């Protein structure tokens, strides 16, 4: 299990390409290179992460289902004793994708389903008809039952500030945990007047829960401050060349000195301002990890509602 807080949870961007056109995705402004992870890079970093006991989540600024090796890599990670999750969206769940995803047996699938209000959903996800998205979500729910953990996440925007109770009830009635997160500007990169208005969290970034408890790795193996860095300049090293402890030391020094990346200065990600429970040592097993992140989520939600 992880010896380093920053590697309790790792977001691995196996591809930063995507065919969807979500309104709130700043992917078009990406200036770092686009591509998909090679087998060599995957092997080099996944061995280190499985040894460390990190929860690896295929996510990032792209669609992990666009990678041709995605299902094989999930199986490999599970086969070598690793824990792996994946974030997917309804636009990519067509044809045979959902059955193949469930058969690969990730520990958990997170389905991003922005809103249950048809007009808002279709504004946020142009190109994905709401009825089709709901049908795909239902198919995934049925396939996952008893086989794979599934949770669903939505987005609270200026248009649906009051949606979260009805949203969570809808999915809960089907036995699926869900939560809505406050829309934010992905490091100052989102522009969507009327849908998202930027909050001001000031200049202090030392408490950023995303930086402290998660590590973000690009398809090239680069470790960035987080996935909101579209330029690749908030670089902490490359995990193919470096050891986990080297990156962790850099992160922890930066937390003490204050994170000074440009992307952080214009960030209004709710986790940036989090004040999560501080335990002495990182969670040592799956149960402790689940409890830790559940506590953090609750605390962050209360903090956001009070702000
Ligand atoms: S599915 Fe994800 S990566 Fe693709 S456009 Fe939407 S938010 Fe961006
Ligand atoms: S402050 Fe914002 S941009 Fe910086 S690491 Fe945290 S979430 Fe990412």
Distinctive features:
single chain; 307 residues; TIM Barrel; 9-stranded mixed β-sheet; globular
Main sheet characteristics? 9 strands, mixed
End-to-end CA span? 35 Å
**What helical percentage do the residues reach?**
25-40%
**Count of alpha/pi helices:** 10
Ligand roster: iron/sulfur cluster
Mean pLDDT: 91
CATH topology: TIM Barrel
Shape type: globular
CATH architecture tag: Alpha-Beta Barrel
Q: How many structural domains in the coordinates?
A: 1
Number of strands: 9
- What string, H for helix and E for strand, traces the elements in order? EHEHEHEHHEHEHEEEHHH
**CATH structural class:** Alpha Beta
In the sheet with the most strands, the strands line up as: 6-5-4-3-2-1-7-8-9
Radius of gyration: 18 Å
The CATH superfamily is: Aldolase class I
Q: Kindly estimate the percentage of residues that lie in beta strands according to DSSP.
A: 5-15%
Secondary structure category? alpha/beta
Structure, briefly:
The protein has helices spanning about 40-50, 70-80, 95-105, 120-125, 130-145, 165-170, 210-215, 245-255, 260-265, 285-305, and strands spanning about 10, 55-60, 85-90, 110, 150-155, 180, 215, 220-225, 235-240. The chain has about 300 residues and is of the alpha/beta class. The protein has a 9-stranded mixed sheet with strand order 6-5-4-3-2-1-7-8-9.
How would you portray this structure in words?
With 307 residues, the protein is α/β, with parallel strands linked by helices. The chain has one domain (9-305): Alpha-Beta Barrel (TIM Barrel), CATH 3.20.20.70. It has 10 helices and 9 strands. It has helices spanning 39-52, 70-79, 97-104, 118-124, 130-144, 164-172, 209-213, 244-257, 262-265, 286-306, and strands spanning 9-12, 55-58, 83-88, 108-112, 149-156, 178-182, 214-217, 222-224, 235-238. Strands 6-5-4-3-2-1-7-8-9 form a 9-stranded mixed β-sheet. Strand 1, helix 1 and strand 2 form a beta-alpha-beta unit. Helix 2 runs parallel beside helix 3 (97-104). The chain starts with 8 loop residues before the first strand and ends with a helix. The model has no long low-confidence stretch (mean pLDDT 91). Bound molecules: iron/sulfur cluster (SF4) (2 copies). The site of one iron/sulfur cluster has 15 residues, from helix 7 and helix 9. Residues 12-168 form the Radical SAM core domain. InterPro entries: 4Fe4S-binding_SPASM_dom, Aldolase_TIM, Radical_SAM_PqqE_MftC-like, rSAM, rSAM_sf. Keywords: Iron, Iron-sulfur, Metal-binding, S-adenosyl-L-methionine. Residues 208-267 form the 4Fe4S-binding SPASM domain. One of its GO terms (molecular function) is iron-sulfur cluster binding.
């Amino acid at each position: 299990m992880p010896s380093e807080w920053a590697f309790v949870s790792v977001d691995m961007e196996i591809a930063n390409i995507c065919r969807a056109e979500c309104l709130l995705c700043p992917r078009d402004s990406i200036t770092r290179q686009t591509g998909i992870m090679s087998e060599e890079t995957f092997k080099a970093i996944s061995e280190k992460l499985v040894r460390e006991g990190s929860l690896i989540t295929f996510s990032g600024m792209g669609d992990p289902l666009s990678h041709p090796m995605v299902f094989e890599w999930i199986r490999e990670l599970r086969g070598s004793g690793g824990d792996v999750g994946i974030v997917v969206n309804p636009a990519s769940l067509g044809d045979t994708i959902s059955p193949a995803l469930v058969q690969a047996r990730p520990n958990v699938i997170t389905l991003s389903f922005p809103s249950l209000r048809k007009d808002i959903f279709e504004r946020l996800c142009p190109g994905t008809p709401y009825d089709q998205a709901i049908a795909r979500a239902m198919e995934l729910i049925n396939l996952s039952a008893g086989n794979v953990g599934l949770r669903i996440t939505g987005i609270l925007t200026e248009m649906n500030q009051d949606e979260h109770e009805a949203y969570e009830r809808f999915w809960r009635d089907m036995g699926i945990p869900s939560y809505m997160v406050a829309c934010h500007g992905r490091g100052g990169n989102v522009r969507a007047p009327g849908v998202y208005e930027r909050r001001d969290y000031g200049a202090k970034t030392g408490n950023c829960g995303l930086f402290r408890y998660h590590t973000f790795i690009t398809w090239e193996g680069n470790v960035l401050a987080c996935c909101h860095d579209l330029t690749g300049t908030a670089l902490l090293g490359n995990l193919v060349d470096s050891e986990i402890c080297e990156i962790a030391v850099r992160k922890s020094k930066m937390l003490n000195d204050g994170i000074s990346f440009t992307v952080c200065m214009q960030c209004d990600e709710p986790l940036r301002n989090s004040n999560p429970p501080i335990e002495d040592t990182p969670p040592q097993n799956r149960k402790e990890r689940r409890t830790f992140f559940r506590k953090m989520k609750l605390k962050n939600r209360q903090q956001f509602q009070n702000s």
